[in-house]
Design brief:
The complex is a heterodimer of chains A (127) and B (113).
Chain A: H1 17-47, H2 50-60, H3 63-90, E1 94-95, E2 98-99, H4 102-124
Antiparallel strand pairs in A: 1-2
Helix pairs in contact in A: 1-2, 1-3, 3-4
Chain B: H1 2-35, H2 45-53, H3 55-82, H4 88-112
The chains are: A mainly alpha (127), B mainly alpha (113).
Chain lengths: 127, 113
């Protein structure tokens, strides 16, 4: 019988840095879910009328929500950077004989991300 | 059928991952202003209601929330498999079931606005 190297089913991703990074990227989805639920909560409150919506706005305030949203914002930035960095591998673009360099594809995504974020901030009236 | 499902769930995961990467950081930042008690003008009931009364905005809001939920459901399923949970059938049913529930609720709320 061939030797099978024992691999832990529960802690294998701690064995190598790239595995750990992969697992961290998987965990960003927890914050995607949390923020989607906050948006859903807000949309539901808006549908419920002005009083329900005011309760939503009141519910957003406070140190616990500030902490949660800071962590969410930072984790979402990490998600965006990680996601766009692997986009060239998931979606390679061929131009003639050559493939478009990954850095160009990722760079284009970063540029669109930054411009789009600034436009949304402007439209929201932040500045 | 299983192969079609696999492609479908992966497509939703990929679309949700891309959409959330583009807009969730800035949206979370904007909601953070509201958490500090100084929401931008757009958070006023009249302004937000007016914005989400527009059908195009409704559609964008629906796509954003729904795809985010399907993205998260699929990725949490693979993450739970990764940390050693092997009840994949149950996990998949619960994860996609919750994403479906959220999708239906989102559509229902948006139609009420």
């Amino acid at each position: 019988m061939a030797y099978v190297r024992p691999v832990s089913k529960t802690t294998w991703y701690l064995a190598k840095r790239s595995y750990t990074v992969h697992m961290l990227q998987e965990l960003t989805s927890l914050f995607v879910a949390i923020f989607a639920l906050i948006l859903l909560w807000g949309i539901g409150a808006l549908a419920g009328g002005p009083e329900a919506y005011q309760r939503f706005l009141d519910g957003l305030t406070g140190p616990a929500m500030v902490t949660l949203l800071w962590v969410t914002t930072l984790v979402m930035c990490y998600h965006a950077i990680a996601w766009f960095s692997v986009t060239p591998k998931a979606m390679p673009i061929q131009h003639g004989e050559e493939f478009v360099p990954g850095s160009v594809i990722a760079g284009a995504h970063y540029a669109v991300w930054i411009v789009l974020s600034l436009i949304i901030l402007f439209l929201a009236g932040v500045f | 059928m299983a192969k079609i499902n696999k492609a479908l769930f992966w497509s939703l995961f990929a679309a949700g991952g891309t959409l959330t990467a583009f807009v969730f950081p800035v949206l979370a930042l904007i909601v953070l202003f509201a958490a500090y008690g100084s929401p931008p003008e757009i958070f006023a009931y009249e302004a937000m209601h007016g914005l989400l009364s527009n059908w195009l905005v409704k559609l964008v809001a629906f796509a954003t929330v729904a795809l985010a939920l399907w993205h998260a459901a699929h990725r949490m399923r693979t993450a739970l498999h990764g940390i050693g949970l092997r009840a994949d059938g149950v996990i998949a049913t619960v994860a996609y079931g919750l994403a479906l529930l959220g999708t239906v609720l989102c559509a229902y709320f948006l139609l009420l606005i």
